[in-house]
Amino acid sequence: MSHLLIRHTIWLNGQECYMVSYPLGQRTPCWQGDQLIDHEGAMLLTQLQDLVNSAPRGKFGQDNLTFVLGAPMVRHTLLPWQDSLHSQDDWNSYAAALFAQQYGSDISNWRIQSSEAGYGQPRLAVAIDEVLYQTALDVARNGGLRLQGVEPLLAHTVNHYFRQIRDRDFALLILGKFYAHVAFCRDDQWQSVSCQPFIHPQHHDPAALQALLRDTAILSGQTVPDTVYLSSTETDAAMVDQHSDQMIWLGHPLPAFARQQVTR
Question: Model pTM?
Answer without folding.
Answer: 0.91
